[in-house]
Amino acid sequence: MNINDKDIVLSYPKRSPIGKFKGSLADLNAHEITSQVINDIMTSSKLEKNRIDYVILGNVLSYGQGMNPAKKSAIGAGLPENIIAYNVNQVCGSGLQAIIQGHNTLLADPNKIILAGGQESMSNATHTINLRKSTHLGDSTFVDTLVNDGLTCSINNIHMGLTVEHLADKYNISREMQDNYSMNSHIKAKQAQLDNVFEDEISKIKVIKKKQEHMFTHDEHIRDQDSLNTLDHLRPAFSKTGTITAGNASGINDAAAVMLISTYKNATDNGLKVFGKIKAISCVGSDPMEMGIAPIHASTDALKKAGWSVKDLDLIECNEAFAASSIIVDNEMKWDKAIVNVNGGSIALGHPIGASGARILVTMLHEMEKRDAKKGLCTVCIGGGMALALCIER
Q1: Which is catalytic among the residues 283, 318, 381, 391?
Q2: What are φ and ψ of residue 200, in 5° steps?
Q3: Does the active-site annotation cover 318?
Q4: How far apart are CA 153 and CA 58, in angstroms?
């Protein structure tokens, strides 16, 4: 890797295990999960906590969490009270956009060290009711913020799954193709888990159950073989005649993923291990109904900026919001499927929406180190019609 002092690099990428909806992490708010991940990073890096200048965290479902969950995460981890912290909401791209914001901050002020990533507790998404304008007569309706703010396209006012049903129909992606893709994601993730592939990237999370302290150490969304055998029995989730089910779409989950961002000079001056440098960034917009395939445009743009071709890539992490859209992206990009989501993707591992963009980067950075891979790309589709892509070099 050719690198100079001003290059922006990533260090100590960490994530929590990914919890099921109302699973092992459900009793913790997003900031409580994140604080523990930050503590693990600070311990591993041996960096003094007063050296952190910013905390930037993606978060989508912030109702009821209190003011500025990023700041709460920082204070919960013992960082100084004068720390600068803020949240980013770009839906499924939030965690990756937070890292991009860290990158952009360093372009303006290269002397800073930043913690950036994403956080989400979908289990704790609230129901809201607007009583600010007094209701004198009649019923009032609660709004499920998980569905309204996290899973529904606010542009077209339809569930995200219906946008991908549109794509599956347009590109002739069958139910069988989607179920096979999903099964492969789970098989890869289960094997990676059995082989302890995720051990270095996971921060153990302390949880209290029945007044007893336990350590949550492993992703719990991955299906076992018996469950996989029933994929073709699941009913369509969004349309009676549709092909998308709970089995070939990503899950509803809880997690946090964070890393250090700095210039190469600051990393070396502080003894930080460098996992890779940010080579190129792309953010694109698209038709909201085709958001699922927007990673095609973001990935193509990022590769062009990096001066790379698809054949130059050693590893790819493409967030699996839905099997149908992931299949289309793979086919249109014509990249080697053997290097895509090698340890399973979000269909198997889970999709905590504010954290997933950072999670895929954490996983890719660790796998690049294991393989001594030189060039990687991660990309994520975003509700409302957008996508992000990052090229990483090491």
Answers
A1: 381
A2: -75, -25
A3: no
A4: 18
- Mark whether 136 is an active-site residue: no
Q: Is 381 a catalytic residue?
A: yes
168 domain residue, yes or no: no
Q: Is residue 23 part of a domain?
A: yes
* Residue 210 domain flag: no
CATH number at residue 308: 3.40.47.10
Sequence-separated (6 or more) residues with CB below 8 Å from residue 247: 179, 182, 223, 230, 231, 234
pLDDT for residue 44 is more than 90: yes
To the question of pTM greater than 0.85 for the whole model, the response is yes
Q: Which of 92, 283, 378, 391 is catalytic?
A: 92
Read out DSSP for 188-217?
HHHHHHHTTTTTTTBPPEEEEETTEEEEE-
Pairing, β 54-58 against β 84-88: parallel
**Alpha carbon distance 159, 238 (integer Å):** 8
The pLDDT tens digits of the residues spanning 13-38 come to 999 999 999 999 999 999 999 999 99
> Quick check: 262 pLDDT over 70?
yes
Using alpha carbons, list the distances in angstroms from residue 18 to 6, 221, 392.
Answer: 34, 7, 24
The domain containing residue 352 runs over which residues? Answer: 8-124+251-393
In a domain, residue 167? The reply is: no
Nearest CA to 378 out of 387, 386, 369, 258 is that of 387
Q: Is 8 helix (H, G, I), strand (E, B) or coil?
A: strand
CA atoms of 254 and 24, how far apart (whole Å): 9
The string of pLDDT tens digits covering residues 96-120 is: 999 999 999 999 999 999 999 999 9
Please tell me the distance from the alpha carbon of residue 295 to that of residue 18, in angstroms, as a whole number. 23
Q: Which of 221, 351, 366, 378 is catalytic?
A: 351
Structural domains counted in the chain: 1
pLDDT at residue 224 greater than cutoff 90: no
Average pLDDT over residues 50-78: 98
